[in-house]
Design goal:
Layout: H1 3-10, H2 14-30, H3 35-42, E1 45-50, E2 53-58, H4 59-84, H5 91-116, H6 134-142, H7 150-174, H8 181-199, H9 205-222, H10 227-236, H11 249-273, H12 289-315, H13 327-336, H14 341-351, H15 358-389, H16 392-397
Antiparallel strand pairs: 1-2
Helix pairs in contact: 2-6, 2-11, 4-7, 4-10, 4-11, 5-7, 5-12, 6-7, 8-9, 8-10, 9-10, 11-14, 12-13, 12-15, 13-15, 14-15
Length: about 400
Amino acid sequence: MNKKLVHFFQLDTAPGIILIASAFLALIIANSPLAPFYLAFLDTPIHFKVGSLDIEKNVLLWINDGLMAIFFLLIGLEVKRELIQGALRTRSRAMFPVVAAIGGMVIPILFFAVFNYNDPQAMQGWAIPAATDIAFTLGVLALFGKQSPVSLKVFLLALAVIDDLGAVIIIALFFSSDLSVIALSIAVLASATLFYMNAKGVARLTGYLLVGAVLWVAVLKSGVHATVAGVILGFAIPLRIKHHRIRSPLRYLENGIHPWSSYLILPAFAFANSGVPLDNFSITLLLEPLPLGITLGLLFGKPIGISLACYISIKMGIASLPKGLHFAHIMAASILCGIGFTMSIFITTLAFPGTDNHALVDLSRIAIFIGSFLASVIGYLALKQTFERIPRHTADVE
């Protein structure tokens, strides 16, 4: 493999670059003579049938329900590892990013509601600005290299992981419909089997993945979004096995999935969901309540919510600033959390399902692009100024 290509894939910013390139490629194709082929490809049916089990979805839904379940499996693994060994393993360590994540979800939702409270259809998208894109956020932070305190990256990673977990809970509670009691019962049984295997010290991943596949099918058929199965499976994978000197099943699976998630799953999702036709688009559309609620929720709601929640928690003694960080670091980094992108687009597809909502989906995606782009640029500039004013060596000793 070309040395320059190998070097590129070793960069912390590589996943974010590939992600945005995939999104822009889809945007270009959707507004070119190739648009019919792009749409036809996404609508291509893929049929899977084994006995009475029959699953038929188009390429778009296989990506959103299937590949993204693997991404959410990765989130489940990361959250569990952080809870046991990482930034969330003690109350004192966990409280700061937890409080920040809650504030960073609640205030953007309020921003959205202020603009759309009198439109029941638009209000279905209330959770869109509540999400944070891990890949992009950490990718922008990685541009600063050693200028950035390690504790800031840990804080942002923990915040983004908790944010994604919050998004999973929202998806499970508010974007499930036509629930099947039989399928739900099978899902509960499969989940219980996974955690029983964990309790008994089963180390082989094959068993977990087979039961996880059953869980995914059951959740898919239950009416709950299939990606929830990924998180449940992630929590069931053991981090370490007692009395056994073997590799960590969780870390092994996490390391195995991570490159596939960064370089295939998320780019495929971005490519499949970013093709917005702009032929009927006008600037005035961005002034409508729906896109305003999304854009301002990401751009202003996120930093206000995170900064305010952190400030209140410090003043009340609930949490304390991580070592080596000033509040200026938190305020600047909170702007980056307005990069919703992948998760915001994902929630959009759930909030406005069906062909009747294409216009709302397209308008929402454009608002997400604009809000995320502005958050990345402004966040980068704010961090640059902060790092120049408070050099890392100064921050680390205070």
